[in-house]
Design goal:
132 residues; alpha+beta; four-stranded antiparallel β-sheet; 2 helices; 20% helix
Length: 132
């Protein structure tokens, strides 16, 4: 093994550890006896049995991490990121999603660094939403 290969692998391993520590671990909402969870890979899963089993209900793609899920009277809301932008989608059931004009909290997603930066407003609304 060449020194350069070793150092590259070591840097990648260190960076991977930092990435896991700096990203939020989950986005979750509960409604009508269902639990919904979002992932940083842009997927939403649903559980009908209190988290024993999970079924994927949406896949927005790896470029659209699910930053937040919330249940409100109007339905389920998903806050997604895309590069330096973020937006909201809404769904009555977690399967069919539509855009909404809901204003998002400032969240900056930096895909090249695999990092999400939250505004003070976001952190005050959702203090337990991420583990830094």
């Amino acid at each position: 093994m060449k020194r350069r290969d070793f150092l590259t692998g070591l840097a990648t391993l260190s960076l991977t550890g930092l990435i896991k520590m700096s990203l939020p671990t989950k986005a979750q909402a509960q409604t009508n006896g269902k639990i919904f969870k979002g992932t940083l890979e842009g997927k939403i899963f649903e559980s009908l049995d209190n988290g024993q089993t999970w079924q994927q209900t949406a896949n927005f793609g790896p470029d659209y991490p699910v930053l937040e899920l919330s249940e409100e009277e109007e339905g389920l809301f998903a806050h997604l990121g895309f590069q330096s932008y973020n937006f909201w989608l809404t769904s009555p059931d977690g399967r069919i999603w539509r855009t909404t004009n809901r204003q998002g909290s400032t969240v900056l997603y930096l895909p090249f660094l695999h990092k999400i930066i939250f505004s003070e407003h976001f952190l005050s609304r959702f203090p337990n939403s991420c583990s830094l």
